[in-house]
Each structure stands twice: as structure tokens, then as C-alpha cells.
Amino acid sequence: MKRSLLHLLLVLTTFIAGCASNPQLGAVDPPKVDPAAQAVDTYHIGVDDRVQVSVWHNPELSVTVPVRPDGRISVPLVGDVEAGGRTPEQVAVLIQEKLKDYVRDPQVAVILIELRSHEYLSRVRVTGAVRQPLSVPYRQGMTVLDAVLAGGGLTPFAAPDRTELYRKEHGGDTRTYGVRLDRILQKGDLATNFPVQPGDVITVPERLL
Question: Which of 122, 144, 181, 208 could form a disulfide with 160 if both were Cys (CB 3.0 to 4.6 A apart)?
């Protein structure tokens, strides 16, 4: 009995040591994340948007202002600040730096309270073999699948495995991401169900005859 128990312990010890020396035996590799799926969901301020600038402990410096046609906003003490094309966080940092000449350790928050600028720039467009090609307003959290379903889904002639997402980068170049829409719809594989960004274009081609 003791000999059998010792033998069992020896086998278990050998197995554990083997797992430690060869991770493939004892663990499953985490799934690889496509870099496109890590795209940041960011809104850039535009003309006619209304923003609220709050300066902690300095309510007299806090204002709610529209973004002028030149892309700037007016802030007490610091004057005009370039807001167009920047994120709220970037504008907050810019104002904070300018306020350091007047306020000790300023803490600034910039909040979008009305999105008026991106009637077209912030839309997401779905084209190709969908039942209703469309241009829809961008919504935070929207994914490729959301946009395609908003277009009524696919036509019988669609080639969903060749779907592509086109995104214009800040430098002006357009980057293309392959979307396996067939896997998303048929298998629930969401690896390529990328979050969309304002201005994205999703194209579903027709299958080859």
C-alpha cells in the first residue's frame, strides 16, 4: 500500500515538473488579439460642438462654449484654444498647461455636451451586398456587426468572408481590415467584429459566380 502511494506521488511529481519545463503541457496559450481589434474608440471635437470646460476649485474659470468655425474655443484667462480635431482629453491638457501661468496646479476637465459637428464626418457607411446600403450616425460602442445589421443584413449574393473595413488614419492614409463576417454570423466568432470609428466604411462584396 505504501509502495503504491509512493509510486503515485512520484508520477505526479514528474508530471508537474514536466509541465513546468514545457508550458504547452500544462497551460493553454491565450488567444491572439488582432491589432485592429485594439483600435481606440475616440471622438475628435469639431466645429459647432459644445463643450464644458471645468476648472477644479475655480468655478469662475469654468465655461460652456461652442466650437467656432475656426476650430477654437474661448476660455477665461487663457483666451483662444485650438479644440477642433483634438480629443476632449487633449484640449483639457492644453488648457491646463496655459492656466499654469495664472492658477497653481490647475485641474481641468473638458466634457462634450452637444455633438453637432460630425453630421457626416462621424457617420459609418455600409456598402455592397447588404439589403439596404446606408450611412448611419456613429454611436459609441458600435461594431461592424451592428452596422451590417442596421443595413438589413446580407443579400443572398454576399461573400461575407471577404468583407473589409476601411479606415482613414490621421496621416490621411486609408487602412484596410479584413472582416470574417461569415464566422461572426455563423459561428459567433467575434475576433474580427471590430469596434467602428467615425468615418469608417464597411464593404461586403458579392461572391464570384
Answer: 181
